[in-house]
Amino acid sequence: MTKRGAFIVIEGLDRSGKSTQAATLLKRLQDAQSPAKLINFPDRTTAIGKMIDSYLRSESELDDRAVHLLFSANRWELAKSIEETLQSGETIICDRYAFSGIAFSASKIRPGTNSYPLLDYSWCRAPDVGLPAPDMTIFLDVTQEVARARGGYGEERYEKEGVQRRVRDVFERVAEEVEGSGGRWVLVNADESEEEVQKVVWDTVKEIIGGIEGPIEKLWDDKREAGNVDALYM
């Protein structure tokens, strides 16, 4: 069977170094002559992405349900392209994916209260069912003390400590579901130096960058069997 490309998603809390690690991993793969490309969600270049960008910068206000569906629609815009790229043998590194969409939406509190969720977890998950499933998700876990010390923290709508704590709680539920459905969710301590995190990320992904045998799975497909699960905290 011809091998396809690996689909690697990098998730994490804000200022955990996702974009830096994704770009570094891309360069390392390209230097190794391994075909790879980087995609980002939200993709702020599309018509839908521009609406999302305006919202994230607090330049516009949208209903919370509408915002969540826009984020999902933004991912569906690229779903076919993701599958075609993987089938061609090229690895995809994805900076944020459906898991962030669920975590940020399902962590919202009800107006005028300190209770959440505003949006039900199952409702938040539903629009992304059937998207291409990652072969591996790397979650960069950063403490708020370290995140605050990094440049630019607090510039966008969700970069508030209370929000980030709730988001992390939802991510833990997402991780359990991903692992339970046979996916691979790898936890990495992103408080460490950029170089140390790079080493852990590379050591984690290098086993699959030569290609994957088998079909591209779908997110939360109940026909997936439990498989290899990794949990790494270094």
Automatic annotation (TrEMBL):
List residues of the Thymidylate kinase-like domain.
Answer: 10-199
One GO term under biological process is: dUDP biosynthetic process
Annotated signal sequence is none
Q: Does the keyword Kinase apply?
A: yes
Question: Which EC class is the enzyme in?
Answer: transferase
The superkingdom of the source organism is Eukaryota
Which SUPFAM superfamilies does the record associate with it? P-loop containing nucleoside triphosphate hydrolases (SSF52540)
EC assignment = 2.7.4.9
Pfam family of this protein, just one?
Thymidylate_kin
Pathway membership, UniProt: Pyrimidine metabolism; dTTP biosynthesis
User: What GO terms are given for molecular function?
Assistant: ATP binding; dTMP kinase activity; nucleoside diphosphate kinase activity
Q: Which CDD domains match?
A: TMPK
The protein's UniProt keywords, in alphabetical order, are: ATP-binding, Kinase, Nucleotide biosynthesis, Nucleotide-binding, Transferase
Gene Ontology cellular component terms for the protein in this record: cytosol; nucleus
Instruction: Report the family membership.
Output: Belongs to the thymidylate kinase family.
Q: What protein name does the entry list?
A: Thymidylate kinase
